[in-house]
Write a structure and sequence with these properties.
Number of domains: 1
Structural class: mainly alpha
Strand content: 5-15%
Radius of gyration: 16 Å
Order of helices and strands: EEHHHEEHHEHHEHE
Distance between the termini: 19 Å
Strand order of the largest sheet: 4-6-7
Largest sheet: 3 strands, parallel
Amino acid sequence: MRRCWENMQNSGWIVGLAVSVALVASQLGCGPDRGGSAVGHRTMQVKGASVGIETEARVRRADRGGWIPKNVEVGKKCENLYFIGCSASFGSNRIPKSALIALETAGVDITLLGEKESCCGFPLFTMGATDCAMEYINKNVAAFREVGAKNIIASCPGCYKTLKHYLPDEFKVFHMEII
């Protein structure tokens, strides 16, 4: 079991509890329903990302941002894939930049999905919208298979936890911590 910097135990039970509460609440009609009435759920369905920005913007930022190492080709066939995640795609890019530089320095051949990367589904699971979350998982699985990825590397803890738990066994999921 790991501990956060505040020395709190982090066994994942809190997220599990939140998902369970959201599911029960939606079944009782006092929480977000699976049909998409929750604002966040609708935003993800329309925009394809948890932060409400079209997936195309993720690629534009990646292509024009200048922070992706030159040898990292978006969408190339490769067994190792770095899953950027919504927050890192649309927020500060310090973490994905550091992750890609570290992977490049270590000599790891890597690819990115670019516009084919969808949200991992974590926000939807926590809202109780499991059916919709699984749609995002399935979209990512199809994209992973398309590029031949076997090893999925995530630096976002929410993405890592979700992908580790819900991806088929054909994929190995790794969490990359940037210290």
